[in-house]
Design goal:
The chain is α+β, with helices and mostly antiparallel strands. It has one domain: Phosphoribosylformylglycinamidine synthase subunit PurS (Mth169, Chain: A). The chain is built from two helices and three strands; from the N terminus they run E-H-E-H-E. A three-stranded antiparallel beta sheet has the order 2-1-3, with helices on one face.
Length: 82
């Protein structure tokens, strides 16, 4: 079994209103040295496969089909054997 650790973020060219809001909050709290915030999502998906290559294919298919919008988001997957 594998645990797919998935990080989905907006592409660098896409405006991030949540990140802008968080940045404003941090500035109001006195964290003036913070210059940029990008908000994303982190997911963990357990995949019951014995073959790491097959688990990686499944994880990428899941991201492409459901977890990430390929038009505006990018993702990375880290597989951890369980």
């Amino acid at each position: 079994m594998y645990l797919a650790k998935v990080c989905v973020t907006l592409k660098p060219t896409v405006n991030d209103p949540q990140g802008i809001t968080v940045l404003g909050g941090l500035k109001n709290m006195g964290y003036e040295s913070v210059s940029e915030v990008r908000v994303g999502k982190f997911l963990e998906v357990k995949i019951e496969e014995s073959d790491p290559h097959r688990a990686e294919i499944i994880a990428n298919e899941i991201c492409d089909k459901l977890l990430a919008n390929p038009v505006i988001e990018q993702y990375s997957v880290e597989l951890v054997e369980q």
